[in-house]
Amino acid sequence: MPKLKKKKNSNHIKKQQNNKEGIFNFNEQVEPKTTKKTKKATRKKKKKEVQANDDFYIGTKEVPPVNKKKIEKIKKEKIKEKRTKEKELAKYQKKQEKLRRKRVQRNRVSKLTEKQIKRNKRIKLTIKILLLLAVLAGLITYLLLSPIFNIKNITVQGNEQISSEQIISLSEIQKEENLFKASNKETIAKIKENPYVKTVEIHRTWPDTIEITITERVATFMLEHGSSYAYMDNQGYILEISATPKDGLPKISGYTTKEEDIIPGNRIQEEDLNKLNVVLRIMAEARKNEIDNLITTINVEDENNYYLYLDSEQKTVYLGDPTMLDTKMTYVKVILEKEKDHAGEIFVNMNLNEKNPFFREKV
Question: Is the separation of the CB atoms in 300 and 321 below 8 Å?
Fold first, then answer.
C-alpha cells in the first residue's frame, strides 16, 4: 500500500514539473476534484434540467409522445358513444312520431264528435221551433174561431166634436166579430180619414171589448173660400168647409194656397204655413193683452205689413213686420181704451225706438 501512494505522488510531481516547464498535453483529460460543493452543484443542475424538460411541454404546440393503442381505444369508445346516442335519438323520434299520429287521430275523432254535437243541437233547436210554431198556430186558430173572443163592446174616448157612432162606423169594426181579426193599422187609417181626428189608439180588453182613444184637432182660424168658409187648425190642416162662419174664429185673408187645394184633410202651402206661425204669435200677444177676442180678420198678404180688422171696435190696426210684437200690442191696447168710441186706424208699423204710434180717426 505505501508503495502505491508513492507512485501517485511521483506522478503528481512529474505533472507539476511538466507544467512548470510549460509543456501541456492536450490529449490528457483533467478530472476535476469531486468535493461536497461540486456534488451539490451537479444535483441542482440535474433538477433544473428535469424542470426545464417538464416546462418544455407546458404551453407549447408540441405534444409529448402518447401510446397509440390508448388513442385508438379512446376513438373506438367515442364512436360507440356516438352510435348509441344516434340509436337513442332515433328511438325517441319514433316515439314522438307515434304520439303525434295518436294526437292527430284523437283530434279527428274530437272534431267529428264536435260536428255531430253541433248537428244534434241544430236538429233539436229546429224541432223545438217547429213545435213552438205548431203550438202558436193552434193557439191562433183557437183564438180566431172561439166564440169566447167575439166582440161584445166598442168604447170611444177623447171625442168631443165627432160622435162615437161616426168613429165606430169609420173603424168598420162589427160586433160579434172576432177580437183578433181587426187590424190596428187599417182601423187607425180608416178613422183618420176624418180631418178632425189627430191621433188614434186601439186597445183590446179581454175577452170581448175594444177601446178606441182619439185626440181631436181644434178649429182656430177660418179661410174665406168663395162664398163659404174653410175651418183650419193651428197646424194648417183644413178641417171642414161650411157655408156659415164659426163664431169666435178670426179669418185669415191674403193667403196664397189655391182654392182647389182647400179640401178637408189637406194642408195649406208652405209659404202660408210660415205666415201662420206669425199669426199665432200675434194672437198670443193679443191674448196677453186681452184683446184677442176683438180681432175678426188678419191680413197676411204682405209679410212686412200685417194688419188686423177689429169689426166691433170699427178699427184697423197696421202692425207692419212681426218685430217687437209685445210692445206693439201694448200700444194697441192703450189706444183702444183711449179711442174707444171713435172709428179709425191704429198705426204701430214703425220703428218704435224712433217714432211713436198714433191713431187716425175716420172722417
Answer: no
Query: Considering Cα of 40, then 41, then 42, then 48, what sign does the dihedral take?
Result: positive
The matching CATH number, chosen from 2.60.460, 2.40.320, 3.30.420, 3.40.50, for 221-361 is: 3.40.50
- The reported pTM is 0.61
Residues 6+ apart with CB under 8 A from 359: 335, 338, 339, 342, 344, 345, 346, 347
Grid cell listed for 358: 198714433
Residue 6 predicted with pLDDT over 90: no
Measure the CA–CA gap between 199 and 191, rounded to whole angstroms: 9
Q: Which three cell numbers stand for residue 101?
A: 299520429
CA nearest neighbour of 196 among 244, 169, 232, 226: 232
Q: What is the dihedral of CA 276, 282, 284, 289, to 10 degrees?
A: -160
Q: Which pLDDT value is given to residue 20?
A: 43
Specify the CATH class of 149-216 in words.
alpha beta
